[in-house]
């Protein structure tokens, strides 16, 4: 099948989902354009900042469009491109976008509270503590995996028999890393100019483009060549700053600038597919079982998380975006719109991988990132873009996919740690509790544990990411069901995705646990790899079960109370 036809079908379906189902939900739940949002009522110049709707959209999309859409879609294509495409479209429209929009909506309607605090309000303090612990553990996995991934991407050296030497693509990797550093610098400049001069509209767009082009130009011409350890230190220094500095000073401007790159990447890939319209060389369907991945259920639904449904997205919606939405009418495009655009990115990644595959259906060699970046770079070269420029641009885009999620999840991890130990009256709280709730202390603790996990290697942590991520989405969905029920809003449309995601995640975690136990019994397991995975998997399942039981009881009780009131 032609890849252009696949992209066209996907685009029409996703646009229809946004226009019809997204707007139906917005009307059903209720949007009040005249209501004052938390960005105004709790404005503090740091986390709560009234922001233009398109800037918030850029932040939301940049934060959620991480490594997942590319990695998951290409990996899962081992089952065939059709199951992946169907799950992206159905999951994106009816699962992921609903969860992201619902989390944003619930948070905005509750003074910008994070998901953990929403759980306390509608489910109870015990549920809140367990959920925050779960969130914090999840952020550690994401920090470790993505930080290791980014540092590996920028690494300019290869080690052979203990001897380090420059890699073949050392200059490209160094340029991409340098561009990333300059993005941080120009983001601060952008934020300061925007704040002091009140830049908006077309002037804001021009300023963002100038800063983006400047970072790209300087970085390509002055690449910094460094090893993986150095880039790891730089990455953690950046996410520390992104976690503690005001949103308007670094995080939002960088997300805004990064969106231009993502837009260029998506437009370039789309135009390339339009001009070249290569065939989808991957097989349509390979069977229910894959020797490397396992069974289609639940593995497909766990592997393709971002792009279909992702619990991490709801943390962004309720943790950062809800605190900057200036008008409730922006919630639909921020919550629902950003997700369907990410679904389109996942479809593009699938088509690029399909075009790069051999005519006999053999997948292209390399990691999903390498396949995607190499494929899009090749498409850009068709338009006369120099090979070096195309390679630098795509390497930066790929790393930015991870970085924009990394800085968001680091900030969310810090906030989850703080909320875990916070009490209503912090003025009278014990000294140790005030310390644990300190912004800098909580950030350092979170990043320290994340750094320790990076020493294990992201490839050893990644198998748990999908299951933890999807379980998180199920926990968010059950919370949203309770919220909508309590507030008298429609919640029945959330039951199907809730039930399906619970079945998927617990099946995947149980299967993974059994596999790890078998590895230990066979004597092939290593404690710092399989042992760590086993501990985290069991902990995730225990926390998940407890949260689901407590939330389910609350949802059932709310139903009974409503029935009594109706009678």
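Sequence proposed for the structure above (567 residues):
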């Amino acid at each position: 099948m032609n890849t252009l036809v696949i992209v066209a079908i996907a685009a029409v379906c996703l646009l229809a989902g946004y226009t019809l189902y997204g707007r139906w939900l917005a009307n059903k739940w209720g949007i009040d354009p005249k209501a004052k949002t938390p960005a105004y009522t709790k404005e503090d110049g740091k986390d709560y900042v009234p922001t233009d709707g398109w800037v918030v959209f850029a932040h939301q999309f940049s934060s959620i469009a991480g490594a997942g859409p590319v990695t998951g879609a290409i990996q899962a294509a081992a089952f065939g491109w059709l199951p992946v495409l169907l799950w992206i479209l159905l999951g994106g429209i009816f699962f992921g976008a609903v969860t992201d929009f619902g989390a944003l909506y619930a948070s905005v309607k509750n003074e910008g509270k994070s998901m953990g605090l929403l759980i306390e309000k509608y489910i109870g303090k015990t549920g809140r503590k367990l959920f925050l612990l779960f969130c914090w553990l999840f952020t550690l996995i994401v920090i470790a995996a993505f930080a290791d991934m980014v540092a590996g991407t920028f690494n300019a050296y290869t080690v052979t028999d203990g001897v380090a030497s420059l890699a073949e693509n050392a200059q490209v990797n160094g340029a991409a890393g340098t561009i990333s550093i300059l993005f941080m610098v120009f983001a601060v400049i952008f934020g300061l100019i925007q704040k002091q001069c009140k830049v908006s509209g077309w002037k804001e767009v021009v300023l963002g483009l100038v800063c983006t082009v400047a970072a790209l130009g300087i970085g390509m011409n002055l690449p910094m060549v460094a090893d993986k350890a150095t880039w790891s230190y730089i990455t953690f220094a950046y996410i520390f700053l992104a976690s503690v500095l005001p949103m308007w000073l670094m995080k939002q401007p960088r997300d805004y600038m990064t969106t231009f790159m993502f837009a260029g990447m998506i437009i370039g890939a789309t135009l390339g597919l339009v001009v070249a319209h290569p065939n989808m060389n991957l097989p349509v369907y390979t069977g229910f079982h894959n020797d490397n991945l396992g069974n289609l259920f639940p593995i497909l639904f766990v592997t393709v998380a971002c792009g279909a449904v992702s619990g991490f997205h709801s943390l962004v919606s309720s943790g950062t975006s809800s605190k900057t939405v200036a008008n409730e009418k922006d919630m639909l495009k921020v919550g629902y719109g950003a997700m369907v655009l990410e679904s389109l990115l996942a479809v593009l990644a699938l088509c690029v991988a399909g075009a790069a595959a051999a005519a006999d259906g053999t997948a292209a060699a390399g990691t999903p990132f390498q396949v995607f970046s190499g494929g899009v770079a090749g498409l850009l070269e068709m338009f006369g873009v120099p090979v070096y420029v195309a390679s630098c641009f795509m390497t930066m885009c790929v790393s930015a996919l991870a970085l924009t999620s990394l800085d968001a999840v680091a900030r969310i991890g810090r906030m989850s740690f703080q909320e875990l130990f916070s009490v209503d009256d912090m003025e009278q709280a014990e000294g140790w509790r005030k310390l644990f709730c300190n912004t800098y202390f909580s950030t350092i603790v979170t990043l320290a544990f994340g750094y320790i996990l990076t020493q294990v290697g992201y490839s050893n942590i990644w198998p748990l990411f999908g299951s933890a991520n999807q379980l998180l989405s199920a926990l968010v969905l059950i919370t949203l069901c309770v919220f909508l029920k309590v507030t008298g809003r429609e919640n029945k449309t959330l039951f199907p995705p809730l039930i399906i995601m619970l079945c998927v995640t617990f099946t995947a975690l149980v299967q993974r646990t059994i596999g790890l136990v078998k590895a230990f019994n066979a004597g092939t397991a290593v404690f710092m790899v399989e042992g760590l995975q086993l501990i985290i998997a069991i902990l995730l399942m225990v926390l998940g079960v407890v949260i689901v039981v407590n939330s389910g009881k609350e949802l059932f009780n709310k139903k009974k109370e409503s029935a009594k009131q109706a009678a």
